[in-house]
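Exercise 3.2. Students should predict the tertiary structure of the chain below and write it as structure tokens, then compare their answer with the key that follows.

Predict this chain's 3D structure.
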Amino acid sequence: MNKVWIGDDNKGTINCPKCNFGTGIDATKFQNKKRELTAKCKCGENFQFTIEFRTQYRKDVMLPGEYSLQGKKGEIIIRDLSMSGVRFECFMPSLISADDTLEVAFKLNNPSGKEILKTVKVVWVNGLMVGAKFIERKLYEKDLGFYLKF
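Answer key:
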């Protein structure tokens, strides 16, 4: 399914998967509504697309790592990653709660194999899944940026 990335101005471009014709949309009216939509191109192609309001590209990954919360450590799998945050899955139930500040460490699975150590603030917890945003974004920006492009 096609994704339409919406910018800060609430605008994006829908591209037809058949002919690649692009048309601009104003997504203001979709802010709090269903984000899976159907479009019909001028070439006659009907296709579905989703509206993505994220400000940063999010890459699906499976990177082993660990977290540290007040001296307690746990193993995790990083499930997706962006320049502004991370979603990970804990192997075991944890005491992680929304608004906690913790450290996450993982290695990138590219030729550099760079180890990333980040301080994050937990935004949400759903069972074993945790969504968090990076507190400080300057450190490793170059490494993460390059990794997320490929």
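Discussion points: The mean pLDDT is 85. Residues 2-52 form one domain.
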